[in-house]
Design goal:
Length: 595
Amino acid sequence: MSKPAKNLYTTLREAESKFAARDYEGAIAAYARAIDIDPSQLVFWENIGKCYLAARKQEHAILVFHKLASENPGNGNYVAQLAGALRFYMVSVANSTIKAAIALCLKTHNVQHEWLYKSWYSYLGVAPEYEPLRRLLCAPEETFSPIFFVLPPDYLNDSFLVDGIANCACALPEQETFFKSLRAHFMTMYDGGAQSLTPYRPLLGALASQVFATEYVFAAMPEEEERLARLEQTIATQMPPDHDALLLLACYRPLERLRGNPSFVEWARMRAETNDAFGRLLAEQVVTYMTEEALREEIPSFGRIANDVSQKVRAQYEENPYPRWRNASTARIYPFPADLSALQKPGKKLDILIAGCGTGRQVSNVMQYTFEADTLAIDLSRSSLSYALRKARELGYADRVSFAQMDILDVRTLDRSFDIVMSTGVLHHMQDPMAGWQALVDVARPGAVLQIALYSDIARRHIAQARDVIRREHIPASPEGIRAFRESLRNGAGADDDTAHLIGAGDFYTMSNCRDLLFHVQEHRFTIPQIHDALEKLGLEFEKFDFATPRIFDAYDRMFPGDPSRRSLDNWHAFEIANPDTFIGMYQMILRKLS
């Protein structure tokens, strides 16, 4: 081995060793030396980007992955990792490279755009070029229109603004206020007939995509509803429909409601084949619904779904498939968050069960793992499963997963066992969560990994109070009931911490997510001591909690420096008592079935 090659080998071993020991600064220094030796090796750049993320140097990671993605446009892995680096990133100072990184991800189809909303929106909040827009974003209803007309259409059709509105689902109360004001303003412009909407088509189309993504959870004023009725009557007499009128209607109603008109359906199918923004909107709002209806017949069913609560839960998700999602990465770049070495056999794929797969968001995540597997995804709801199957075919992994309709209580009848069993956010919606959990343990092989997520009683204290109000006041879980309850909370925003917590939840901003958050037909909540007891009864070993942000681990390490493995449930219970919002995203657990 030549001296440079030997030096490179030694440097890489050092980098890997330091990363494994959580010495991220040391790993960064070692990878930097490796890059100096051979800068052409892109994997060194990729690894130093991962080290920057682990070291909480988010901006450094963004710059590295943007360099890789922009210089290697055919490699989707780098864009996917760039989007991951931008997750939770708040821009404090305008930076053209950061803007370019966000813009690149917004224009890339196969990334999770919901990861970008904080970086995109915070950039709008600090960049000098968007100062006029900020006046519009915070404008009260009575001054919105005068400010709007001061801004030229080209400014409002700015691609960074339009792409963000189209792809980053609303997650903040001030965003909702802006989108509602903008929608009402466009309706007034159209209904009055004095101003054409045509100059604002990119912005109007983006708004239609935004409101569709929320499943029309935003309430409308009575005068808007009156104008909407006139708009619907106008569209009913047009074929082909007016472009602007249809975009405006899509800001208030899903266009699939027009499927009763065969002429419209035929026109929409043909128009959707064009790859422009309007065609994509028609594809999403009309064609996909028809596709899912056809796919329902392809999904097999096992068992009877006889449990009363299971039937009620199925009915909810038939009406509101959860969660509705659009894009996901197809890059196979992520390691599984547990050691699988004891389960992997040469030449044999791992067997995975996803119990309660919903619309397939978790399935898409599993498809990004680096190992080969045969995956079975089950759910109660045929509407959710048809959505999941459609997305699997769109994203190209339908040959790696099978879907079936069945109750978790019936999984023993499959006559199969699994290396990995996943059930996140499902067991707490069953009549008897322990019965469902036991069924999953029974089909897990000895040594299998279970990924289980359950609601925290402490973290959901505000949600529990809201559910009590909904139950006491008999508020229906209908679109009208959900909109009315949301408006009552928004109008009381700032009145107390409980309300602030609710309207600060991301799930508050889409119809199916809000129903799942506050109006679910069945909900159990747990504490860590209860989970500890359950694990003992089920013969499971706790390995770790999984978090979207590593900063929680940093805080835990400071509080419990004597538990570097972070496996003490007693410590985690004490940590949650001190930090009651820790598990607002559920207890996301990695467990191991004892042999």
